[in-house]
Amino acid sequence: MKSSPVLPPLDQWTRGGTRVRIGGHAVFVRQDGPADGAPVTLLHGFPTSSHDWAATVPSLAAAGLRVTTLDFLGFGESDKPRRHTYSLLDQATLVEEVWRWCGIGRTALVAHDYGVSVGQELLARDPSRVTRMAWLNGGLYPDLHRPVPAQRLLHGPLGPLLAPLTTRRRFGAALRDVLGRELCDADVRELWAAASRAGGHRRAPRLLRYIDERRRHAGRWTAALEEYPGPVLFVWGPADPISGAHVLARIRTRIPRASVVELAGPPAVGHYPQLEDPQVVASTLKSFLAP
Predict the structure, then answer these.
(1) Could you give the CA distance from residue 253 to residue 2 in angstroms, rounded to a whole number?
(2) Averaged over 91-120, what is the pLDDT?
(3) How many Å apart are CA 288 and CA 91, to the nearest integer?
(4) How deeply is 29 buried, as exposed, middle or buried, from its count of CB atoms within 10 A (0-12, 13-18, 19+)?
């Protein structure tokens, strides 16, 4: 088990951002780097928050990029309404509203996990707005998505009963099941703090409806992924049981022009490249994104 934290404390990360009123809800938004830098937007995954990117952002900002991060509705420091119908389409609209609030026109985009579907929807709406696209492990192809047992349970009919029983220990065990490299207990504690804030872990069954949404929009989102004309990078952990080497194999076949960085180790990286190998991920993204 790693002894040194990768992430700064969550409260330190959140102090660097602000809560913006969008669509009747408060949404956490943070900007780093020079105001006149080339824009890049980072989209986080389920069930965590923009804090996932905290080890990546400083390197990108130091390279002169204007880095925008946000917590999707239902995640992190953003509002987590109890009876809300969470939708990836609505999350994409939320990103567009954040861009409007920040005065961002065209931007590079980096997406991980849940965020890849939001990224695909944004590409489907207006690919010309995205200057270049980087993907980290996520369910880009719904037929290849392999949810872990905890996700299947929470997505099923018993989900509303099981979600309140989630504890930090159970969260940590589920997280470690998808990693190729260990995270220290301090990092797991901070990730749980973001996920569970304001009862966020209880929203998991509603948020996990994204699995069904991915299937409904598979044709549209696959086309957006494969037909995007700009520069494309995949930074991928092959040891990920959810979206690992089996997804990378299809990517190499279907998008042969893309640049691929496979974090094969040893040990091989799993589902969270930006946490498991933050230095290589930050360096790779900086080289790809910096003007």
Answers:
(1) 35
(2) 98
(3) 25
(4) buried
Q: State how far the Cα of 32 lies from the Cα of 20, in Å rounded to an integer.
A: 16
Q: Any idea where the domains of the chain sit in the sequence? A: 10-289
Q: What percent of the chain has pLDDT over 70?
A: 99
What is the DSSP code (8-state) at residue 8? P
Give the architecture (CATH level 2) of 10-289: 3-Layer(aba) Sandwich (3.40)
In angstroms, the Cα distances linking 50 to 73, 106, 205, 258 are 12, 20, 20, 25
* Two tokens, residue 156: 């099923």
DSSP three-state, residue 236: strand
Give pLDDT tens digits for 130-170.
999 999 999 999 999 998 888 999 999 989 989 999 999 99
Distance from C-alpha of 66 to C-alpha of 55, rounded to nearest angstrom: 16
Among residues 262, 210, 209, which one has the least CA distance to residue 233? Answer: 262
**Torsion sign across C-alpha atoms 201, 205, 209, 211:** positive
Mean pLDDT on 104-119: 98
**Contact, 264 vs 238, CB < 8 A?**
yes
Q: Which residue has the tokens 């931007």?
A: 107
